[in-house]
Amino acid sequence: MAKRLLVVDDEPNLLQAVAICLRAEGYEVATARNGAEALLKVAETLPDLMISDIRMPGMDGYTLVRQLRAAHRTVILPVVFLTAKDETADRIAGFRSGVDAYLTKPFEPDELIAIVSNILNRVQRTHTEIARLAVGASATEPEPFQDEQLTVAEARIADAVARGLSNKEIAAELKISVRTVENHISHILAKKNFHNRVEIARFVMEHQQSD
User: Fold this and answer.
1) Confidence class for position 148, pLDDT limits 50, 70, 90
2) How far, in whole angstroms, is CA 209 from its chain's centroid?
3) Tens of pLDDT along 58-76?
4) Whether pTM exceeds 0.70
5) CA distance readout (Å), 176 to 42, 123, 179, 182
6) Which CATH homologous superfamily contains domain 4-138?
7) In the chain, what are the domain boundaries?
8) Is residue 135 scored above 60 in pLDDT?
9) What is the CATH number of domain 152-210?
10) Which residues of 111-128 are buried (b: 16+ CB within 10 A; e: fewer)?
11) Which of 74, 84, 114, 167, by CA, is between 20 and 30 Å from 48?
12) How far is CA 1 from CA 28, 47, 48, in A?
């Protein structure tokens, strides 16, 4: 699926030229003539990246980016400034507003294409890594310990014993009294015919390894 780009500029000829350049690279391109129109376009269809001028009637590029960064839906929307404002102070203001890249006019189309491609690839890598970590976290999360002879409360306490927690630490984790923990451990020892906590811990760990 083609990546969606939004190009914002009040100069019709430049707007058309940039759009043609990007469409030739396989991107789906929408256009807007100023910041206010750009916000409407973003509300209709969220682009994968936006390219914007700074000097525009009504709402300038700085204000546009600040509004995007203030909204949850667009807080991480990549934005590239393409502008004739080439002073260092302009660049600093752009980056402080939240822009991701800054390219001055006149510009080389190949450079713009490289910037767009680099940002989109970086975003894709980030999304892929987040998805991988999420899957890995869910895959490695152990199942709660269960045993047919033990109640749910006893199973939770047996699991805590296997993790090396003291009775006081188990009580704090499960929000029960130390006496209740002691009673449950006594029941576990009796039900499983164990003699000490080490045997409880060994049983739980062997059970988890066999699952």
Assistant:
1) confident
2) 33
3) 899 999 999 999 888 888 8
4) no
5) 52, 46, 8, 11
6) Response regulator (3.40.50.2300)
7) 4-138, 152-210
8) no
9) 1.10.10.10
10) ebeebbeebbeebeeeee
11) 84
12) 9, 13, 12
